[in-house]
Amino acid sequence: MTDLTMKAQEDTVTADQNWINICAVQDLPIDAGVAALLHADTPQETQIALFRTSDNDAVYAISNFDPFSEANVLARGILCSIGEQIAVASPVLKEHFDLVSGQCFEDDTVSIATFPVKIADGNVLVAG
Amino acid sequence: MSNKQRILVIGNGMVGHKFLEAMVNSPQYSAFDVTTFCEESRIAYDRVHLTEFFAGRSADDLSLVEPGYYEQHGIRVLLGDKAVSIDRSAKTVTSEKGEVLSYDKLVLATGSFPFVPPIPGHDRDNCFVYRTIDDLEAMQAASKNAKVGAVIGGGLLGLEAAKALVDLGLETHVIEFAPRLMAVQIDDGGGAMLRQKIQDLGVKVHLGMNTQNIGDGEQCFHKMSFADGSEIETDMLLFSAGIRPQDALARDSKLELGERGGIVVNDQCQTSDPDVYAIGECALWSGRIYGLVAPGYRMAQVACDHINAEDNAFTGADMSTKLKLMGIDVASIGDAHANTPGAKEYTYVNGTEEIYKKIVVSEDSKRLLGAVLVGDAADYGTLLQMTLNDIPLPEFPDALILPQRDGNGATGMGVDMLPDGAQICSCNDVTKGQLCQAVSDGATVLGDLMLATDAGTSCGGCKTLVGQVMNSELEKMGLEVNTDLCEHFPHTRQELYHLVRVGEIKTFQDLLAQHGKGHGCEICKPTVGSILASCWNDYVLEPEHVALQDTNDRYLGNMQKDGTYSIVPRIAAGEITPDKLIVLGEVGKKYNLYTKVTGGQRIDLFGARLEQLPEIWKVLIDAGFETGHAYGKSLRTVKSCVGSTWCRYGQNDSVALALEIEHRYKGLRSPHKIKSAVSGCTRECAEAQSKDVGIIATETGWNMYVCGNGGMRPRHADLFATDLDKETLIKYTDRFMMFYVQTADRLQRTSTWMENMEGGIDYLREVIIDDSLGICKKLEAEMAKVIDTYQCEWKTTIDDEEKMLMFRPFINSNKADSNVVFVEEREQIRPARKEERGSIN
Predict the structure, then answer these.
(1) How far apart (Å, rounded) are the C-alpha atoms in residues A81 and A83?
(2) Which domains does chain B carry?
(3) Looking at this predicted complex, what is its ipTM?
(4) Are A70 and B834 an interchain contact pair (Cβ–Cβ within 8 Å)?
(5) pTM above 0.80, yes or no
(6) Containing domain of residue A96, as a range?
C-alpha cells in the first residue's frame, strides 16, 4: 500500500472506531483473500474480507458481503488488476469491486464498505 | 375439416423437406394444413452425404429432420405410402393404400430416378443403383460375399459410388462410356489428372467402354463384355449412368412435360396447372433439369413464397460445384469448357503434386468466365465470386492459379470487392450482406455466425469465405479481431498453453513476468491454473497455485448461491455398493445436507459450510470415496448403462469400460468440463451421443462418438470411428482429449471447439486417427503423465494440517456465518429466501 493510501485510510478512522488486531500479516495468504469477523457476538458484528497483495505487500479490507448475491463470499473471490486499480471478482456472479474505494465496476450505483488497515509489529489492524 | 388451405406435398426428399421447412417458417403458417407423402420408409435424409453411410454414419445421422419436427408443426406424414394418381379436376390425390386426399395446392417434389441403360443382363442379381439408404443397405449385404465391384458411369455420382465400393473393401472398377471422367463438369486436362489420382488410390478406371452384355462370370458373379472385345469380371455391379426426372404422376395427370421428360414449370415453379407446383430434380425450368440440391432448395422457397402471395422467382442457378471425391478436391465453375465465343484459357499443371488448374477468361481478358480445379480447390471461393460478380481480372490473370511463392503473385481477391448481394453460401442462399448484418448484430465468432445465418452449415464449402467476410466486417466496425485472453496476456489460451509447455513454466508469476503484464484477473488466473495443471499436474492448492483457483477449485466444492458448498464424491460409472450408499445417507443426515441425484449418476450433498468440508471429506475418504472433481473444469463423470452383464440386449460390458475410462481420465484439468458415457448397445441408455466422448458397443467392438453436448445448445455427437477394439479406443481418446486440452479456447466445450475448427470433424479425424500433424505420440505421452500423477485432492488436503486452516470460516474466529439460514421443504433443507431470513433472524 502506498503511503498516500495509508494516510487517506488512517484519516478516515472516526471517533467511534478502534484499531482491532486481526492476525499476524504472515498468516494472510498472498494474492488471495480471507474472511475476518469484527465485533463478534455484538450488534455491530461485521464480516470483512482481507486481501494481501504481493506487488506492494499491502493489505486491504472490504466488506465480505456481496450485495448482488446477498451472501458473505467476497473473501473467496479472485484478486484482479484492472488497469492501475486493484479489485476482487465476486465468486458468485463475477461483479468486480475496487479494493480501495469499494466501488462496483459493473454498476455505478453499487458500492461496498471499505475499512482502514494498518500494520503494526507484524500484525494486521483494522479500524471498525 | 377446418377452412385452412390444404397443402399436399408428394415426395419427402431433401427438396420436399426444404419446402416444408419454408412453409413452417412462413408468417401465415397457421393458415395452412400441410400433408406430405414419403414413399421411402425413412423421412427426409441427406442424400448428398450418402457415401458417408459406408464410412460409418448411420441412417439416423443422415436424417435432415429433427425428431418430432413434423409432429410439432402439425405436418401429417404418409410414411411408406405412395401417391398413385392425381385427379386435377376434383383436386384430389389417391394413395397406394387407398386414401384420397384433397388439396388446394399440390407440390410435386418427386425427384429423379437413376437411369439404368438397357444392356442385356442389367436386371441380373447383384446389380444395384445408388440413390436411397435402402439401395445402400442392399449393397452392403451383397458386399459380404463379394471381392470385386464395378460402377458403370464415371460421372460425379459414379465416382461417389466407387468410393462406397472402396469403403466396402472391394477391388473397384469404374467403367465410363465417354473418353473422360466427370465429362459434364471438367475438361480433358482436369479429367486426365483426376483419373491419375483415382488410379493412385487403387481404383481401376476404364474409359471409352461400351458395355454390350452382362452375363455369368467364371471367377466372379458377372462378366461384362465390351464393344472392343475386352471383358471384366465383377461380383457386384452398380449403375450410375445419370438420372431421369420422376415425372410419371405428372405424365398420367396430363401436366405439360418436356420432350425428354421433366415437369415444365414457370419462374414461380407452377406447372401447367397453376395449383400444382413442381420443385427440385423433377422440374424442368427453361428447358433445364437442375440435378443439384442448391437450385432445388431455391425452388422450394420460391414455391412457398408464391403460395404465401409473396414475390419471388426462380431465375436459374449457377451450376458450379466443389466436392471431395475419394479425398480428392474437384471443382468446376461457370463455363468450364470455354464454350463462350472468344474465350481464352490459362492452364497450370503440376505433375509432381498432381494438381490441375484452368481458368477461362473473356475475349477482352477483363472477366473470369469459368474454371476447373483438380487436386487443389482452395481457390474455389475466390474464383467463383469473381465469376458470379463480374469482378475485373488482375493484369495477369494467370496469377490467379499460379502457386504463390517468394511472396510474389499474390493477387487474391479481397472479400471487400464483393457486392452485398454476392451469394456466399449457395446451399442455404446466404448473401454477403446478410452475413455482414449478422456480424453487426453480434455474431462475431465463426460458429455463432454460421448458427445465425445457416451459412456453411450444409456442404461447408464456403466456410473459409464466411470467415473472411466476418473478419473484414469486424475490422471495418473498428473491432479489432482481438483474441487476447485478457488485458494481462496478449495471447490466446492455445498460445499460453504452448508457452507453458515449451518454456517449461511452472507458475503463474513466471508466466506473467515473461509473457504478461499487470497482476492477473479472474479470467487469466483460473485459465493459467488449469493449463499448469494439465501440463504438470501439481496439487492445485500449493501456495503458488491456490490464488489462481476459482472458488470451486480453491475449496474443492461447488459454491451455491448462499455461499455454502455442495459435495460430489466420485461414483465412477454410477456403480456404488450398498455400504457406500449408506455412508452417503449417514453423512447427509448427520450434517443435515440436501441430497439429490445428479444427471451424471452421482449423489450431490448440498448446504455444507466452508468449515464443514474437511470434516465431511474425512468421513467420506475413510469410507473409500474420492473426490469427484465436480468443482473443476475437468473430467466429470462417465455415465453407463448396466451393459451385457445384466441386460438382455447388451452387446458388451459398458460398466467395466466406463469404470476404466473414468479412472483413467479423472482429475484431468481441461478448458471446460468433459463428460463421457458408455452404452452397452445401440439402444443407447447412457445417452453417449450427448457427451464430449461417447462410446456405444457394437457386435464387433466399440463405436466412438465425439463433440456432443447437452446443455444450452444441445448437439448430437459425431460418429468418429467404428468397431474399435478397446486398445485403439483408449488410444484415440487419449489423443482426442489432449488435443482438446491443448488447442481449445477458455470455457469452450468440445462441440464449439470442433465447430470452429477449419475442416471440422474430418480435420479432427486426420489429426487423431491419421496423425497428420505427427503429434500423436506426444499427446499420448502427455496424457500418460497426467494419468500417472493423479492424486485425490481431498485426500492430500485432509492429510495436511496447514491446508486445513484454509477452511476456517474466519481467520480470527470459528463462528459460523450467521447469514447462512435454511428452511425445510419436502423434508429437506433449502436456503432461506430473503424475506424468510429476515423473520428468522
Answers:
(1) 6
(2) 5-113+245-307 (3.50.50.60), 127-241 (3.50.50.60), 493-549 (no CATH), 635-788 (3.30.413.10)
(3) 0.89
(4) yes
(5) no
(6) 3-127
